[in-house]
Design goal:
The complex is a heterodimer of chains A (818) and B (103). With 818 residues, chain A is α/β, with parallel strands linked by helices. Chain A contains 26 helices and 37 strands. In chain A, the strands form ten sheets. Chain A has a five-stranded parallel beta sheet, with no helix packed on it. In chain A, strands 9-16-10-11-12 form a five-stranded parallel beta sheet, covered by helices on one side. The radius of gyration of chain A is 31 Å and the shape is globular. In chain B, the strands form two sheets. A six-stranded antiparallel beta sheet of chain B has the order 1-9-8-4-3-2, with no helix packed on it. In chain B, a hairpin with a 2-residue loop joins β2 and β3. Chain B is globular, with a radius of gyration of 12 Å. Classes of the chains: A alpha/beta (818), B mainly beta (103). Chains A and B meet through α17 and β37 of A and β1, β2 and β5 of B.
Chain lengths: 818, 103
């Protein structure tokens, strides 16, 4: 098939990101030509400020070097500005006369700084702040001249002013608004910002209107004159009073524009062969000037160019972060407040902290943080997910405290951490290493950072810290989407929620069917998506979907826990943590016979035999003659109990029997993540039920049920769920809650995170208030469990399953001539 | 180089693997979804994890210990990780899996 011709006008971040996404989806569909007006390959424009501030070099901010273009067969034409689009003939013409034909055209011409139309605006020394050339002019001027005036107190203007100050110039920021960054900050935060920038030596004039730029007699600017008659000296004037989408080229060719090239939800313009993306495009009346939305647009545009056509762009919620080292500032959503909104404010002018949260209809819709932005990512996720915050409202202001409790010296803010501070305690990754990787490799998401540095890739407790570092390094371009909005993995664009829905609604019962239905880009997925799909299938269609052993990770395939040396640990089930002399004798015999290097008591009241060879597993199980303890699975793990009323003088309820019953109820249950329970017989709570997925506490008048606790990476205290009278009720409510979790949670989402995502109200409604639904949930759980049996017993008895544990005998070696 | 007859192809599950005891340690023999077979020393270049126990997809295996991704054709780890597992020739002929050990 002859390749289609794709021409990209504009060699910047939006256009090139689209090509990257396109090459992932359809590497051979197009012959690609790129026109770039600048003489550089694609670089990270948002890092121009660190370059100006002397914190980074030009080379460090290149995102795609010239090899990337040639490796992907892209014809790159640098330093050539396209001057005409001929839509009839379907070609473009560049300033040097180059003509390129297209089948599809992508316009990503970005924007230009708005130059105030005042007398003198054409003088030498008057520039915008947009590209490498502008940055170079500023750096050169700083060497030879001393007075700089920046017109515009927005994000860009302040970053320019800060950089020029660091390069030794005397800098005055002139701003038309009443406070700085009025589009990103409210007045309080804006004034705090001005105060700390003043302390760094920047001068401010606001509100102030520029009237004229004065000539020094040689055609160079020498002063700025204002409408009130004031005059200040200026050898360099940087216009940062806004940007204008570059639409001239499109307009000339008859493509509809209105403050941007008008595009639909697939980023197509008035002419469907022509796409526009990035700062030059206007989508539903908004031309985005930040990077994060461009990346969302790029995905959709690439999807359409690849002729898949199932993605839609529906606008972005944006967040802002000032890239001035040492100043922490974050805003997102509708932070100004207004009619029908409520605000929660924390103000500590001496400590330099200001936080404002804007709430509407029990949902967080905006946040403006100054001085302490550690929770910016968390608030941003809640704004995007429109979570109901009525239950968390009283502590919303105090943030997520999302960081795990241990592993990083109790640090929860990265801004003041030195480069040598260890962020990831599992893999020993320091802050400096992460910052460097983000800058050198052009990373924008926590997943990218995980891949490149291994930080947050093991236990994940430092993911919040990594996210903060990412936000403070790349600003608003950081991709901090919640799991509910993220694609499951690189194999697919579908989110966990979309996949669960498709499996349910289209009755998909095999991994292959899901992958075909949802256009998987890889032949058989990867180690991230296959275990998730397998779980979704068997939990949605029990008895119909086949549990695919090859899509389970080793522990769930071998039904034992792999150890660092490739041996396994074996934990037999002891119902409710109760055992007997006979069981202990058998365990001791096995430990002797197989020379088990370590026998250990676990935190869940079980006994762990460590260091067993895989080949020995079936025999060990057989000789133990106990059921699988599922200590290896995303499944029911243990129900921990205290002694309870049978023996304990304080006990009010028979917690041990309750634990045993619950454990039998849930035996063999697979779940999105591991599930641990505990039952205590009185409020002294010796079984530590407050940090379990389901914790039951016996009181004199019945039982209290708590859900969503977690004792691991980050200690989460379970929340009170319901008070019940009888043991039967406890079993019924427990079964219903866990079945709801099984049906709705995303793979690897613990109950606490599921609870945070859907809200306690929702779970109460489904389990407590709706008796019929509770019954139905229990029935579905029982139905699902009716297809499961003790996996150890199964493997002892079925020769075909035993194969997994046997080596191929090599005694029979037949030589075949080559 | 000579080919050793290891087993029938059906003895290895699709997207599965088996271990052959070689002269210098375990060798993992993998079968892909397209019934190609590949053989690597059963040691991940990272921390020696048994690759035979990993999850197989396309022509790659993810190490069960720390999720390094290893190319079955070359034994190379996928970037940004660096390292290489020792590779052996393997093929399927007449439904039999053949292996040629490489020192």
């Amino acid at each position: 098939m002859k390749k289609l011709k794709l021409v990209l006008i504009g060699n910047g971040m939006a256009g090139i990101r689209t090509l990257e996404e396109l090459l992932k989806l359809a590497p051979d569909m197009y012959e690609i030509t790129v026109f770039g007006a600048e003489p550089h390959p694609n670089y990270n424009r948002i890092l121009l400020s660190p370059v100006l501030a002397g914190e980074q070099t030009f080379d460090e901010i290149v995102l795609n070097d010239l090899n990337w273009y040639s490796d992907n067969g892209i014809n790159l034409l640098l330093g050539r500005k396209v001057v005409e689009i001929n839509r009839k003939q379907r070609h473009v013409i560049a300033s040097d006369g180059t003509v390129a034909e297209y089948d599809r055209l992508l316009i990503a011409t970005g924007s230009t700084p708005f130059i105030l139309p005042v007398p003198g605006s054409k003088l030498e020394g008057v520039i915008g702040y947009r590209d490498i050339a502008d940055t170079q002019v500023m750096m050169e001027t700083a060497k030879t001249h001393s007075h700089a005036v920046v017109i515009g107190g927005g994000l860009l203007g302040l970053e320019a002013a800060n950089g020029l100050k660091l390069r030794g110039m005397d800098v005055t920021v002139v701003h038309i608004g009443e406070w700085l960054m009025e589009r990103q900050l409210d007045r309080n935060a804006g004034e705090l910002l001005q105060q700390s920038l003043s302390e760094r030596g920047l001068k401010f004039l606001l509100p102030k209107h520029t009237a004229e730029l004065l000539d020094n007699g040689d055609g160079r600017v020498c002063a700025v004159k204002f409408t009130d008659g004031d005059v200040i000296a200026a050898d360099l004037v940087v216009m940062a009073a806004g940007i204008r989408p570059n639409t001239e080229l499109a307009e000339k060719s008859g493509i509809a524009c209105n403050r941007g090239i008008l595009v639909n939800d697939t980023l197509q313009t008035f002419d469907p062969r022509v796409y526009a993306i990035g700062e030059c495009a206007s989508h539903r009346g908004i031309a985005y000037g930040l990077v994060a939305p461009l990346f969302d647009q790029a995905k959709v545009c690439a999807n359409h160019l690849a002729q898949l056509g199932f993605a839609r762009y529906q606008g972005s919620v944006t967040s802002t972060k000032l890239k001035v080292t040492g100043i922490d500032l974050f805003s997102a959503g509708e932070f100004m407040g207004g009619e029908g909104t409520e605000t929660i404010t924390l103000s500590d002018p001496i400590g330099g902290v200001y936080k404002k949260l804007v709430i509407k209809n029990d949902q967080l819709i905006g946040a403006c943080l100054y001085g302490d932005t550690a929770d910016g990512g968390w608030y941003f996720r809640q704004i995007r997910e429109l979570q109901n915050i009525s239950q968390t409202r009283d502590h919303l202001m105090f943030g997520e405290n999302a960081i795990g409790d241990v592993g990083h010296q109790g640090q929860d803010k990265t801004a003041n951490m030195p480069d040598t501070a260890e962020v990831c305690g599992c893999n020993g990754v320091c802050k400096g290493t992460i910052v460097k990787a983000i800058q050198e490799n052009g990373l924008f998401s926590v997943d990218d950072v995980k891949k490149h540095t291994k930080a947050a890739s093991s236990c994940g407790s430092c993911a919040g810290l990594v996210e903060q570092i990412l936000i403070s390094t790349v600003g608003g371009a950081a991709d901090v989407k919640p799991k509910s909005e993220k694609a499951i993995c690189g194999c697919s664009d579908s989110t966990h929620g979309q996949i669960r829905q498709a499996i349910r609604e289209h009755h998909l019962t095999s991994i292959v069917a899901v992958q075909q239905h949802l256009n998987w880009s890889t032949p058989n997925g990867c180690a991230t998506c296959r275990p998730a799909l397998n779980y979704y299938l068997i939990s949605t269609w029990p008895g119909e979907a086949i549990d695919d052993a090859q899509s389970r990770l080793i522990n769930e395939r071998a039904h034992a826990n792999i150890q660092k040396d490739g041996t396994y640990s074996v934990v037999p089930r002891m119902w409710g943590g109760v055992t007997s002399a006979a069981e202990l004798r058998r365990i001791a015999d096995v430990a002797d016979k197989y020379q088990v290097p370590m026998v250990k008591v676990t935190g869940g009241q079980r006994i762990d035999l460590l260091g067993i060879k895989k080949d020995d597993l079936p025999n060990v199980w057989k000789e133990l003659d106990m059921p699988s303890g599922h200590a290896y699975g995303k499944s029911i793990r243990t129900v921990k109990t205290c002694v309870g009323s049978e023996f304990c003088r304080f006990g009010t309820q028979n917690s041990t029997q309750m634990g045993i019953d619950l454990e039998h109820d849930l035996f063999n249950m697979w779940s999105p993540h591991k599930v641990k329970l505990a039952v205590s017989g009185c409020p002294r709570n010796c079984a530590e039920a407050g940090i379990k997925d389901v914790g039951i506490i016996g009181v004199d008048s019945g039982w209290e049920m708590y859900i969503g606790g977690n004792g691991g990476i980050k200690t989460e205290v379970a929340e009170f769920f319901v008070k019940l009278k009888t043991a039967e009720e406890v079993r019924e409510y427990n079964g219903a809650f866990l079945q709801l979790y099984r049906e709705e949670a995303f793979y690897l989402e613990r109950t606490v995170h599921y609870l945070q995502r859907v809200g306690m109200d929702y779970i109460k409604q489904a389990v407590i208030e709706d008796a019929e639904n509770r019954k139905a949930l229990n029935e579905r759980l029982q139905y699902s469990l009716s297809f499961e049996q003790d996996p150890w017993k199964q493997r002892i008895e079925t020769p075909q399953l035993k194969k997994e544990f046997q080596r191929i005998p090599v005694t029979v070696v037949e030589e075949v001539p080559v | 180089m000579s080919w050793l007859d290891i087993c029938a192809l059906e003895e290895i599950n699709p997207l599965g693997s088996r271990i052959v005891l070689g002269p210098s340690g375990d060798i993992a023999v993998f079968r892909t979804a397209d019934d190609e077979v590949f053989a690597l020393d059963d040691r991940c270049p990272h921390k020696g994890g048994p690759l035979s126990q990993g999850l197989i997809y396309g022509k790659r295996v993810a190490c069960p210990l720390h999720n390094w991704q290893i190319e079955l054709e070359t034994g190379e780890a996928l970037a940004p990780d660096q390292g290489c597992a020792h590779r052996h020739e393997a093929k399927v002929e007449n439904g039999r899996v053949l292996l040629a050990l490489r020192n």
